[in-house]
């Protein structure tokens, strides 16, 4: 595994402050390669000589929850945030369709950089929560829950009756707020069309609803 691939796996697992220090580089003689790498062809053996290393690895896995308005702030997204939002969504495998057109209905979490995003779109008496993404290094630190809570506060203050979402990954996350599964056909058509998600979310996505 390449060093950068190993680093990415550590980041995905929630580790930060990653330090990788090479301690030894292995170069094989022809005899050593014949014994240790006998299953490989001679060109493959030669390519590995000098590319195998031992390394000292140090990393930290944060457990403390971050505090909104102390460690980071939540605010309405601005046009200057679009590139950061696009990257967060792309890194999470989410579409950016409709983000620019509805930017005023998106919230971002800012901690020097943009580290989280969520969208809330209104139609009729319902709201669609969408496009929640958190920076890999700061996941499971409470930012997602804070963004989610802020959206629900906004929806209730606006007099919305029901909140909906489509998800492939967050079903277990949202049930803590009381969301339950429904059929896609139960989402008001005006809401799903206004969010432009109907044509971009897989039919396998779980449809969830919360009575506000």
UniProtKB/TrEMBL annotation:
CDD domains: NAT_SF
Transmembrane segments: none
Presence of keyword Methyltransferase: no
This protein's UniProt keywords: Transferase
Record-linked Pfam families: Acetyltransf_7
Annotated GO MF terms: N-acetyltransferase activity
PROSITE patterns: GNAT
UniProt keyword annotation of Transferase present: yes
Every N-acetyltransferase domain range: 72-198
Full protein name: N-acetylglutamate synthase, GNAT family
């Amino acid at each position: 595994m390449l060093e950068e691939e190993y680093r990415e796996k550590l980041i995905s697992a929630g580790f930060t402050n990653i330090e990788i220090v090479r301690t030894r580089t292995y170069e094989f003689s022809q005899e050593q390669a014949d014994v240790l790498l006998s299953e490989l062809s001679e060109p493959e053996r030669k390519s590995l000589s000098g590319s195998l290393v031992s390394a000292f690895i140090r990393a930290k896995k944060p457990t403390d929850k971050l505090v909104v308005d102390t460690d980071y702030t939540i605010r309405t997204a601005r046009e200057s945030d679009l590139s950061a939002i696009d990257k967060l969504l792309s890194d999470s495998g989410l579409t950016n369709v409709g983000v620019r057109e509805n930017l005023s209905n998106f919230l971002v979490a800012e901690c020097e950089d943009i580290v989280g995003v969520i969208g809330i779109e209104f139609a009729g008496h319902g709201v669609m929560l969408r496009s929640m993404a958190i920076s890999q290094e700061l996941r499971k630190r409470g930012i997602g829950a804070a963004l989610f809570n802020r959206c629900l506060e906004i929806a209730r203050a606006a007099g919305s009756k029901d909140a909906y979402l489509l998800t492939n990954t967050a079903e277990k996350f949202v049930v803590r707020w009381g969301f339950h599964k429904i059929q896609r056909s139960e989402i008001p058509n005006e809401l799903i069309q206004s969010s432009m998600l109907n044509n971009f979310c897989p039919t396998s996505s779980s449809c969830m609803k919360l009575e506000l």
